[in-house]
Specification:
The protein contains 27 helices and four strands. The chain has 683 residues and is mainly alpha-helical. The strands form two sheets. It has a two-stranded antiparallel ribbon. A hairpin with a 2-residue loop joins strand 1 and strand 2. Helix 3 packs antiparallel against helix 11, helix 14 packs antiparallel against helix 15 and helix 20 packs parallel to helix 23. The longest helix has 48 residues. It is globular, with a radius of gyration of 31 Å. The N and C termini lie far apart (102 Å). 50% of the residues are buried.
Length: 683
């Protein structure tokens, strides 16, 4: 398979090309028809494109092309996995044997730096490729039904395929520069897809917010790359000047980053620590951790398949992947690892608490994603790389299921997203309801369902390795997760429908079949690293060298009992509120009566947006306004216009000396003579 691995990203790229050409042909035909039918308006941009009427015939064609291309990539990835499994795990020297590094050409070269264009296929990258192409294929198929009424489905599937290509480049690249290429590619695609419905008010702003926030994190990744290139040395002491993973992360090379250090305020900081910290900055942007998580909930303005792709299979997992890939650098700096754990735990708790105060069905899930990413980041900080990867995989499946389920609810409920208007949808949307229940079981860690195993492994690792406080805080995060999911299930699917003006209906099979498949995967994916077998640990062991995690029956029992009790509390509280008509559209949440100002803080997302507006956005706007309205107009324009005015004035003045009248020249000659004679006379 090594010789065919390039096909995995090339196939969706081919889908981009085919759909682009078909889209251009459609546009040409549309213009030709418009030429013959002057009275008919074929243009885009009539409000919410998603609210179009009737199926768009190009949606199925473009969607199938895009889906088949990603699906073929999944088949090739499975074949690659089988080939790697057929190799012995380690060599006779105990080194990792299941990998191949394919370099196709020298991509760029300047000075001592040469960047190859190549792929590193090992246990970690293949695992990520399976998630990206597998879940990505189901999301593409779902999108065929979801975007069937849209006016621009071909453009949508071009962007969606491009997103897959960028993510594959990120996880398959054999060096930091290729990773950065994919890193920026997913950022660009998220910008295009979040703002896909650009005619509306919110999507363009949300896409800009995501783009700008991620640039802050990208600055950290760039600085880390520059530092590695400048400082890493070979074991013989000469500079490495390479950004290829297998060369940089070799034991002797990584340890060379410890040679550079400085003392600041009594503490020694090494280059490895600084690089790890800059990598962490990149992770906080891409994986939406504190303080750069603010973009992810607003990204809900995009179409739901995009939300599922960003939250489950692609973009937000990139930060966790980066930290696991570069874990030898993080392990050289315990203080940065502690910071990683702190950020992960803080994010898990803050985001889970904010989810309690949201009314938008997708935003609850968005903050849930931020919270679950906090679990993964905390796991990486504690050195539980397999547990982080395990939760990344299970979360990718059940969160894709939940997002697509929420999209099915929105699609079948008149594009309404406010949970206060819903209720009783389990009867009208049975397929969506039951699959959503399965996704919820995965998220809250219902016994024997995927999230139960993966979340327990993270919490168990914390208690096993003297991180008891971290473990208890993560248990609190799990309890909050159960509560807001109980609240959501109750408000959306039980009781009576509160807005009777909307005719709810089940979604098409294009949308429900992927839901059933994901539901099945949610039930089964806990087997990926089930205790007593630990296939994922065995699979990743040559890369992260980690022992199999122990299963703690007592911890699992306590977390499960607390979680189920919390879910029941959330469910019955809002079920009671619905029966007593305490939930109405535009009404404040029930918890607001008890939580008061504290709950209002949760509704306002702990004030992060307000803080950034006050500290960054408003000063920036004021500065831009100063330069735009005063400095540019008064100073720059003043200098430019003043110079022109001065030249004009000089010209008009000198023009009096070039009037063409002989008498004027004679007069000036006489005046000149008088001045000269006067000068000599008075001298």
């Amino acid at each position: 398979m090594a010789e065919l691995i390039w096909l995995v990203p090339l196939l969706p790229l081919l889908g981009v090309v085919i759909n682009t050409l078909l889209g251009l042909n459609d546009l040409r035909l549309s213009r030709a028809n418009a030429h013959h039918d002057h009275g008919h308006d074929h243009g885009h941009g009539h409000g919410d494109a998603h609210h179009g009427h009737g199926d768009n015939p190009t949606a199925k064609r473009s969607g199938l092309i895009a889906s088949v291309m990603v699906g073929l990539g999944f088949v090739l990835t499975v074949a690659t996995l089988i080939e790697l499994l057929g190799m012995p795990a380690t060599t006779t020297l105990g080194e990792n044997n299941r990998w191949f590094d394919v370099t196709y050409w020298n991509w760029m070269a300047f000075g001592d730096l040469e960047v190859p264009f190549g792929f590193l296929i090992d246990q970690l990258s293949v695992t990520m490729m399976l998630l990206v192409t597998g879940v990505g294929t189901l999301i593409h198929l779902y999108a065929v039904g979801y975007m069937s009424h849209d006016e621009r489905p071909t453009r949508f599937f071009v962007y969606l395929n491009l997103f897959i290509v960028a993510m594959l480049m990120l996880v398959m690249g054999n060096n930091f520069v290729m990773l950065f290429l994919g890193w920026e590619g997913v950022g660009l695609c998220s910008f295009l897809l979040i703002g896909f419905w650009f005619e509306q008010r919110d999507p363009p702003w949300a896409s800009v917010k995501a783009f700008v926030t991620n640039r802050v994190g990208d600055f950290g990744l760039l600085m880390a790359m520059f530092a590695i290139w400048a400082l890493a040395r070979k074991p013989d002491g000469t500079f490495l000047h390479s950004l290829v993973f297998r060369e940089v992360l070799e034991q002797g090379t990584v340890f060379s980053l410890q040679q550079y250090s400085t003392f600041f305020m009594g503490t020694q900081y090494t280059a490895a620590g600084a690089i790890a910290f800059m990598l962490l900055l990149g992770v906080t942007g891409k994986s939406a951790q504190i303080p750069l998580f603010v973009w992810l909930p607003d990204a809900m303005a995009g179409p739901t398949p995009v939300s599922a792709l960003i939250h489950a299979a692609t973009m937000v997992t990139a930060g966790v992947y980066l930290m696991i890939r570069t874990h030898p650098i993080f392990e050289l700096s315990p203080s940065v690892q502690s910071t990683v754990t702190f950020i992960g735990v803080a994010t898990a708790l803050v985001a889970a608490s904010i989810a309690l105060g949201q009314y938008d069905i997708k935003k609850v899930l968005a903050f849930s994603t931020v919270s679950q990413l906090g679990f993964m980041v905390a796991a990486v900080g504690m050195g539980a790389y397999v547990a982080a990867m395990f939760h990344l995989l299970t979360h990718g499946i059940f969160k894709a299921l939940l997002f697509l389920g929420s999209g099915s609810v929105i699609h079948g409920f008149g594009n309404e997203q406010d949970m206060r208007k819903m209720g009783g949808l389990r009867k009208k949307m049975p397929a969506t309801f039951w699959t959503y229940i399965v996704g919820t079981m995965g998220l809250i860690g219902f016994p024997l369902v995927s999230g139960f195993w993966s979340k327990d492994e993270i919490i168990g690792h914390a208690f096993d390795h003297d991180h008891r406080t971290v473990g208890m805080l993560l248990v609190l995060g799990a309890v909050l997760t159960s509560f807001y999911m109980g609240r959501q299930i109750s408000m959306v699917f039980f009781g009576e429908q509160r807005d009777q003006h909307i005719h709810a209906h089940e979604s098409s099979r294009w949308m429900t079949i992927p839901l059933w498949i994901l539901a099945g995967l949610t039930l089964a994916s806990g087997l990926i690293n089930v205790p007593g077998w630990h296939p994922l640990t065995t699979w990743l062991e040559p890369i992260v060298e980690e022992e199999a995690a122990k299963f703690h029956l007592n911890i699992a029992a306590i977390v499960t009992i607390l979680g189920l009790a919390s879910f029941a509390a959330g469910f019955y509280l809002y079920n009671w509120a619905a029966k007593h008509k305490r939930i109405k559209p535009n009404q404040r949440d029930l918890l607001h009566h008890w939580g008061g100002d504290f709950y209002a803080i949760l509704e306002e997302k702990w004030g992060f947006d307000a803080l950034y507006n006050a500290v960054l956005v408003k000063p920036y706007k004021a500065l831009a306004s100063f330069f735009g309205k005063f400095f540019d107009v008064k100073i720059i324009d003043g200098i430019v216009n003043g110079t022109a005015e001065l030249v004009g004035l000089s010209g008009r003045g000198l023009r009096t000396f070039q009037s063409g009248y002989v008498r004027s020249y004679a007069l000036m000659f006489v005046i000149g003579v008088v001045i000269v004679l006067g000068f000599f006379a008075l001298r």
